[in-house]
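Reopening this ticket.

The earlier resolution said the output was attached, but the attachment link was broken on my side. Pasting everything inline this time so it's all in one place.
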Amino acid sequence: MSHSWVRATTCYSPMGKWDSENTESPIHKHRKRYSATSIFGKRLFLDDYVEDDDQKGTKEKPILVSPDVQVLGERSFNGSCSSMVNTADNLYNTKLYLGSSSRDNENLPPKRIIHPSKVLCSPYDHNERGPLQPHEIELHKGIVALSKVEPHRSQVVVLIDKTTLFLGQLGDSFDAAGHVEAYVFKVFCRILFRENHPRRSKIHYFFTTLGDYFLGSWSSEEGRREMRRKALRSFNRAGKALPLHENERMFFLSVHGEHWFLFVVDIIARKFVFLDSYYEGNTPFHIGIRDLMINNFIKTWEESNLRGMGFRKFGVEYPNMPKQIGSDACGIFALKWMQTWASRNPLQRQFTMNDVADARVRFAVDILFSIHNTEDKGKALVKNFAW
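Inline output:
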C-alpha cells in the first residue's frame, strides 16, 4: 500500500492544493496583472518648466490621464527637510517672544524697560567667566606699575582701527581709585564693534564726541560748528555699517561735571533711556540736561536727513540701576552697561559696587590683550614685567 503524498488533493501538503511547479499562485497572478497595467499620471502643478518637455501635449500625441492617479507635485528629500526645519524654527522663536501678537503685526518683545533682577537668574548672563584668575591679577599689577613711570607711561599700547591708547591712560583708568578717561571709552567702542558687528547686534556705540555735542559742551560758535560737523560725520559713518533707523538701540557715552552716564536711544521701546550710577532722574543734574540732550539728538538726526522715527513722541525712562559709592566708579558702571545692558532682558544680572574692583582688573587686561589690538609691543612689555 502506498503512503506517498497526493499533492493536488491532500490538505496537509506543505504547498497546499496546487502544484507549485506548474500552477501560479493567486498572489503571483495578481502581481503579474498589476505590473502589466500602465499608469499615466498628469502633473497639475509644475516645479520647473522644461523647454523640451511638451507639458500640454498635442492633438496627435495627447497626454494620457489615469482616472485613479494624478501627480499633484513632488519635492526632494532635502527640500522637505529644509521646509520642516524652517517651520520648527519659526514656531520656536514665536513662543520665545514675550509680547502678545495682534493682527497684521509681528509678535514682538514687550515695549517696556525690564529692571535688572536682584539675584543672578541665569548663570550664563553676566559672570560666565567666573572669578579672577591669578594671571589676570598679575597682568593688572604690571599695567598699573608700568603706567606710573616714564618712558612706558607715554608708550602706545593699544591700537584698534587707528584708535590709540597710552599705557598711562590705561593704568590710571583702571587703578584702584582711577577715573576712566575718554580714550578708554573710544577703544572700548571699537572692541564692541569688532566683536559684534551692528548688522548682527543691531546696536551702535558712539564716541564721547556725540555726547559732548548733545550736552552743548562748546565755548564758542566756532567750536559749536566744529562739534556739529563731527556729529554729522559720525552719523554718516555709522550708517555705512548699518542704517541708523534699523538699529534697536544706540548708546551715547556722556560726561557732565566729570560724571559718566549713558544716554540710550531705544528705538524698539520708543524710549530715551538714561543709565546713571549716581543721580536719579528727578535730581537737578538730569533735569538740567535731559531736554537739552534729547532736542540736540533729534536736531542732529534731522540734519543728517535720516528717516523720520517719531522721536518727539518717545518717552523718557530712568531705570532703577544700582548706585556707586564714591565718585570714581561711574566709568566702570558705564563700561559694564555698554557690554551687558538690555532693556527687555528679564534675566540680566545686577552689576553692583561689589563687582567694581574685579571689573577694573578684567577690563584692563581684556582691552590690552584683545585680539583686535594690533600693538604687540605693549602686550610683550606687560607680560615680561609680570613674569
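Reporter confirms the inline version is readable. The chain has 13 helices and seven strands. The radius of gyration is 36 Å.
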